[in-house]
Amino acid sequence: MDSALLRACARLGVKLIHSTPGRPQGRGKVERFFRTVREQFLIEVDTGKVTDLPTLNRLFTAWVEQDYRRRVHSETG
């Protein structure tokens, strides 16, 4: 485990708990977000135009700010 992560958690008073491998029930929100990224962002990315990580980061940030965060959540409204 990365000591920097452990130090950051300790400094912030956060208890680091790892989910059980093979049991996605413990990380549903994260799994749902990754599914949304795969289904809505990655299919729109033209891989021929993304030649470096800064470009991918810029496109992802724009998608999160302009699309993902502006959608009304189906359950919470």
Kindly describe this structure:
The protein is built from three helices and no strands. It is mainly alpha-helical. The protein has one domain. The protein is extended and about 40 Å long. The model has no long low-confidence stretch (mean pLDDT 83).
Architecture blueprint of SSEs:
Layout: H1 3-12, H2 28-42, H3 53-66
Name the descriptors.
77 residues; mainly alpha
Briefly summarize what is shown.
By secondary structure, the chain is an all-alpha fold.
- The tally of domains stands at 1
Question: Average pLDDT value?
Answer: 83
The main β sheet shows up as: none
Number of strands: 0
What distance lies between the first and last C-alpha atoms, to the nearest angstrom?
Answer: 38 Å
| Structure classification | mainly alpha
Question: If you compute it from the alpha carbons, what radius of gyration comes out, rounded to the nearest whole angstrom?
Answer: 16 Å
The helical percent reads 40-55%
- Give the helices and strands as they follow along the chain: HHH
Q: Point out poorly predicted stretches.
A: none
How many alpha or pi helices?
3
Categorize the overall geometry: extended
Name the beta content range.
under 5%
